[in-house]
Write the structure tokens for this entry.
Amino acid sequence: MQPVKDSSVPRIDSPTFSSSESRAATGTLVLIGGACTPDGMALRSFVDAVERVGGPIIGITAASADPEGSAALWRGDFASIGVTDVHFPCVSRTDAKVDRETAARIDDAAGVFLGGGDQVKLVATLSGTRTCKAMKALFHRGGVVCGTSAGAAALTSLTMAGGEIDNEGNLVEQYIGPGFGLLGYEAIIDTHFSQRRRLQRLFVVIGGNPQLLGLGLDENTALVVRGEVGEVVGAGGVTFVDGRDSVRFDNAGDLEQGRQLTLSHLRVGIVGTRYHLNLARRELQVLVTGEANSHLRQVRDAEVTA
């Protein structure tokens, strides 16, 4: 089956973001690009952050097509690294009793873990519930919220999906819709980034909405965000794409006519392990603060020694 014609990417004319709320929050966000191994540093960064707060973890697998099966797998993964105080309660937007009980468990927790699957399904299931309000309250009082794959994509004010060829060769229409808004800064997240070659997809989204900051998270890699700064931890890197005040031309609105994406002047950067990205400034923290580049200093020292 041949792919259908590309649809233009949705343009967000008047987005509502929560950057000021994100700056005021005292919690930690752990954004993982998917496929995280239990013994990897990405998941460990979440566990370590929770241990510093002290308390149980509440896991939510509502994004999965098989929430119970996914919960069982995650429970085993956490147990394999010695984390046993983790619970995966049922979630429901239609059962008020279940919703109250889940929210109460989050009220007593140190961290919330959002598993992978379908970010649109996850947002639709939780938005407007007591469970969602409790998760946001936990973050604002200093708790830890972690999302992997779809769970990470849902934690921004806007979430993206689609824009790729499916298993039958059809192009899935690009979707941009509301997320949970815990990470503001006009950011939008793509996951499994290098592994699924999603740079083009992120270019299309930012080309159509240049005010956004695109963050591409590699697998088994976390962006650990405290305040306005995120540290990259794990096996890969984080790509950032910034079109604000830089894009001079784009045809993202014309792609329904069968054209290829054409645009000029995006800022693109890659943040490696242990480096930090300032989300408010959209720049490496070492450049924001004017710190000396330790890598260059090591090279100069080696040259002097030689």
Notes: The two ends are 61 Å apart (CA to CA). The chain has one domain: 19-305.
